[in-house]
Design a protein that fits this description.
Shape: globular
Largest sheet: none
């Protein structure tokens, strides 16, 4: 059976068929509709060429969403991975209760994005406002009423939820570092900080590659937390690209233009993630 190509393709067929039906065919269909004026309701549509793509680049809301999303991804990727790496270093120390803390730090990732958004909406809007009113701290009041504070509220929520999951990636890599390398560095007179900087950190690059990739892709396609926390407000100033595409398709029924936005979004995310993978892969070292 191992040598039979028929058996190999038989076991692989369900995955290929599912991938074809769920990814390839919808993507090709979406590319076709991006060149039409389809409204998502009527079966007929007309070919309009590049008109949808031209409208996309003329859409000020799309440009604002694009800039907001890029800034959000940059900040969130940094905060999530820095916190996750710090937590991984903390819980891999030989101290009592480290396994318990691993579970506690991972728990936010088990909560659905919609519930997280509503819970933090209450915290940011009501709890922060009450604390700011009691302590006369104006910067804690009205956090969801401006673009700046709404941006940081979303960063806090995503960092709180995703850092526990990314922590597991870094824990796995830390535990995979051979003890003899650290012992050899200690014998050569390296301090604890030097061991971390010269031994642990270079060997952590495979985990950084995975962690940055997962965090980046999840932040780019973020929707549920954006919907429940700010709903794009005020005045669409905190609207992420996924929400902008969704509203174009299902609120204004401009499916052709929404598909054009989706194709542009796909190309941008693909270019950024591939560049990140190539850059971090070059810095990986073998143990």
């Amino acid at each position: 059976m191992r040598k039979s190509k028929g058996v190999f393709w038989l076991f692989l067929a369900p995955c290929l068929i599912t991938f074809l039906l769920a990814v390839i065919i919808p993507m090709l269909t979406g590319i076709y509709y991006s060149f039409t004026d389809w409204d998502g309701v009527h079966s007929n549509c007309d070919f309009v060429g590049l008109r949808n793509y031209i409208k996309v680049f003329q859409d000020s809301y799309f440009r604002n969403s694009f800039i907001f999303t890029i800034l959000f991804v940059i900040v969130s990727v940094c905060t999530v991975n820095i916190l996750a790496f710090g937590l991984a270093l903390l819980v891999t120390q030989k101290t009592a209760g480290s396994n318990l803390f691993r579970s506690i730090y991972f728990m936010p990732n088990l909560v659905g994005g919609v519930l997280v958004g509503f819970a933090w909406q209450f915290i940011v809007r009501d709890v922060f406002d009450s604390i700011g009113q009691m302590l006369h701290m104006d910067f804690l009041r009205g956090w969801l009423s401006t673009q700046t504070t709404g941006f940081w509220a979303m960063v806090i929520v995503v960092t709180w939820q995703m850092s526990g999951y990314m922590m597991l990636v870094y824990i796995a890599q830390i535990q995979n570092i051979p003890d003899n390398l650290l012992e050899a560095a200690a014998i050569d007179g390296a301090s604890g900080f030097q061991q971390f900087l010269k031994v642990k950190l270079p060997l952590m690059m495979p985990a950084f590659t995975i962690g940055l990739f997962l965090t980046m892709t999840n932040c780019f396609k973020l929707y549920d937390q954006n919907l429940t926390l700010t709903n794009g407000g005020p005045s669409k100033s905190t609207e992420m690209l996924t929400m902008n595409i969704y509203n174009t398709a299902f609120v204004t029924n401009q499916y052709g233009q929404a598909q054009a936005k989706g194709i542009i979004f796909l190309i941008v995310v693909a270019l950024i993630t591939v560049s990140q993978l190539l850059t971090t892969k070059k810095r990986e070292v073998e143990m």
